[in-house]
Amino acid sequence: MKNVLFVASECVPFVKTGGLADVVGSLPKYFDKNEFDVRVMVPKYACIPEEWKNKMNYVTHFYIDLAWRKQYVGVFELEYNGCKFYFIDNEFYFNGDKPYDFIHLDCEKFIFFSKAVLSILPTIDFRPDVINCNDWQTGPIPVFLDTFQDLSLIHI
């Protein structure tokens, strides 16, 4: 069994601004469930419709270091189309009526998101063989992977 993790800043049907959301929301369901354990991680934006937020289950929370402060990381999950979706919660970064804002604010937001994604993996007991990073918002993930060879070091 191969473990595949899709990480993106948006995903249909939860939040969509463009084609990225369509791909991340539909592609995982086409993997053979007998050969692949496919999971998806996205931010838990305040703008996600309540109908979806009400279906999410709280998993855990912890804090990670980011620059000079500790930031809350909440973890929620939802099964959709035979795939587990994880939502990373942090109202400081993901509050607002849209997923993207000004680039100078979004840079820190998605650095946080990328570090939180890797920090969650030991907590949910999932070690991906492949991490599919989508667009610039998840670009720090390969950098963090190179920096922290042992994923257990990321959850600080």
Give the biggest sheet.
6 strands, mixed
**Which residues form runs of ≥5 with pLDDT under 50?**
none
Give the strand content.
25-35%
Cα-based radius of gyration, to the nearest Å = 14 Å
How many β-strand stretches? 6
Helix content: 25-40%
Count of helical stretches: 5
One letter per element, helices H and strands E, the order comes to EHEHEEEHHEH
Lateral strand order in the biggest sheet: 3-4-5-2-1-6
- Tell me, what's the shape? globular
Mean pLDDT: 92
Structural class: alpha/beta
Can you offer a commentary on this structure?
With 156 residues, the protein is an alpha/beta fold. 29% of the residues lie in helices and 30% in strands. Strands 3-4-5-2-1-6 form a 6-stranded mixed sheet, covered by helices on one side. It starts with a strand and ends in a 9-residue tail after the last helix.
Q: Keyphrases for this structure?
A:
5 helices; 156 residues; 6 strands; single chain; alpha/beta; six-stranded mixed β-sheet
Describe the secondary-structure layout.
Layout: E1 2-7, H1 19-26, E2 36-43, H2 50-53, E3 57-66, E4 69-80, E5 83-89, H3 91-94, H4 103-124, E6 130-133, H5 140-147
Helix pairs in contact: 4-5
Question: Summed up, what is this model?
Answer:
This protein has 156 residues and is of the alpha/beta class.
